[in-house]
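Researcher: Quick test of sequence recovery. Tokens follow.
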């Protein structure tokens, strides 16, 4: 699937393996990446089915991970609050 450059930062799977929440980040934060991931969900689930030895394959839910962006903002706030050296 053509979704561009992205990094998966975390995956949370429910105990019953019915749902997987996939957190990702992208250098461009392009909304088309989310659309591409959602369009490719069927393909990704089919690939998981080939590799997983479970009866069911989890529904995939994609979430943009804002923690890196928030961390950068906090770092900048701290830097701005420090006296110049």
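Model:
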């Amino acid at each position: 699937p053509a979704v561009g450059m992205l990094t998966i930062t975390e995956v949370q799977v429910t105990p019953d393996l019915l749902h997987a929440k996939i957190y990702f980040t992208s250098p461009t934060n392009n909304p088309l990446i989310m659309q591409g991931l959602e369009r490719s969900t069927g393909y990704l689930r089919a690939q998981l089915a080939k590799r997983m030895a479970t009866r069911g394959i989890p529904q995939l839910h994609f979430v943009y991970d804002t923690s890196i962006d928030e961390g950068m903002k906090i770092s900048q706030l701290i830097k701005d609050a420090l006296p110049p050296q």
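Residues 3 and 35 are 8 Å apart (CA to CA).
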